[in-house]
Amino acid sequence: MLIESKQLACKIEHATLLNDISFTVAQGDYLSIVGPNGSGKSTLIRCLMGILQPSAGELILKGQPLHSYPRRALARQISYVPQAVQTQSLAFTVLDFVRMARYAYHHPFSEWQPSDEAAVQQALEITHTTDFICRQCNTLSGGELQRVMIASALAQQSPLMLLDEPTTFLDPHHQVAVHQLLQTLNQQHGMTIIEVTHDINHASQHSQHILALHQGQMMWHGQASEFMEAQRLHDLYQQDFIFVRHPQTGRLLALADES
Ligand SMILES: Nc1ncnc2c1ncn2[C@@H]1O[C@H](COP(=O)(O)OP(=O)(O)OP(=O)(O)O)[C@@H](O)[C@H]1O
């Protein structure tokens, strides 16, 4: 197993943000984490990044406690793509920004290696961001910047990529482009993906497993193809859904019932 979460709990001061969370993620899996606002999705991602310490239970990465990994060693295993970035804070060219992702392979005064250049070039090519390398990150559109963020995560060459609502602020075309890129990374490059998303149709169609959180607890974990069930979605979101079949794939799509 790549990741094992064993009865994970996370408390901040007196607030219990996560409780009794147990699941596993195999190499090559694509897990979507869903759930209503405030259910603990980002908190779980922060635990997986090693930023938050469990208050009980533990996270195991490749057989070792995740918190026992030194910072750089963890960055060689896990990369992270945030929801949205304040572009003003990115006063770097795209090339410099993606190169910085190689810090995990360097120590002070170590030299830039051909392997670093190869990793950066490959990340730029896969994400189709090569044309932007001389641009300042703070001049890119939201969709372009999100691809650069994924390029940066890819340059880390870690087997696991965590993404926190990576398509939230993107238009439909760029949402599809990022979704397709994630599919390619997962299916053709063997990348293990854990993605927080509010797009349950995307999650049920494109991921392999879904973990549904509700009030910091695990409400459901299973095969993505089995997720779409009226009572489950109602219990999760306190919202009725209408189901229709995708005319091409035949998969169930859920539409929030506004009637
Ligand atoms: N530092 C903190 N101190 C106290 N409570 C916190 C802290 N950080 C997060 N929370 C609370 O923990 C709960 C879970 O937050 P989290 O950001 O993980 O939710 P989420 O599922 O990612 O939500 P969203 O879908 O809105 O992004 C929320 O109620 C939030 O207010």
Note the beta-strand portion: 25-35%
Supply the CATH architecture of the largest domain: 3-Layer(aba) Sandwich
How would you write the strand order of the largest sheet?
Answer: 6-7-8-3-9-10
| Domain tally | 2
Q: How far is the first residue's CA from the last residue's CA?
A: 44 Å
Structural class estimated from helices and strands = alpha/beta
What tags apply to this protein structure?
globular, alpha/beta, 27% strand, 2 domains, binds adenosine-5'-triphosphate, 259 residues, Rossmann fold, four-stranded antiparallel beta sheet, 8 helices, six-stranded mixed beta sheet
Protein model, in words:
- The protein is α/β, with parallel strands linked by helices and about 260 residues long.
- It folds into 2 domains: about 5-75 and about 160-255, P-loop containing nucleotide triphosphate hydrolases (Rossmann fold); about 85-155, no CATH class.
- About 30% of the residues lie in helices and about 25% in strands.
- It has helices at about 40-50, 70-75, 95-100, 115-125, 140-155, 170-190, 200-205, 230-235, and strands at about 5-10, 15-25, 30-35, 55-60, 65, 80, 160-165, 190-195, 210-215, 215-225, 240-245, 250-255.
- It has a 6-stranded mixed β-sheet, with helices on both faces.
- Strand 4 and strand 5 (about 65) form a beta hairpin.
- Helix 3 (about 95-100) packs parallel to helix 5 and helix 4 (about 115-125) runs antiparallel to helix 5.
- The longest helix is centred in the C-terminal third of the chain and has 17 residues, at about 170-190.
- The protein is globular and about 55 Å long.
- The structure holds adenosine-5'-triphosphate (ATP).
- The site of adenosine-5'-triphosphate has 11 residues, from strand 2 and helix 1.
- It comes from Methylophaga lonarensis MPL.
- InterPro entries: AAA+_ATPase, ABC_transporter-like_ATP-bd, ABC_transporter-like_CS, P-loop_NTPase.
- GO terms for molecular function: ATP binding; ATP hydrolysis activity.
- Part of the ABC transporter complex HmuTUV involved in hemin import. Responsible for energy coupling to the transport system.
- Belongs to the ABC transporter superfamily.
